[in-house]
Amino acid sequence: MSIKILCLNLFFFLIVINTIAAQNGSIKGFVQDNQTLEPIEYASIAIINPITQLVVNGDLSNKTGIFLIKNIKPGTYQLKIYFIGYETRVLENIKIQDNQNIQLEVIKLKLGNQALDEVVVSSKKANSSNKIDKQQYKASQFETAKGVPLLMSSRICPQLQLMVKVK
Question: What pLDDT, in 10s, does the model give residues 136-151?
Answer without folding.
Answer: 766 666 665 555 555 5
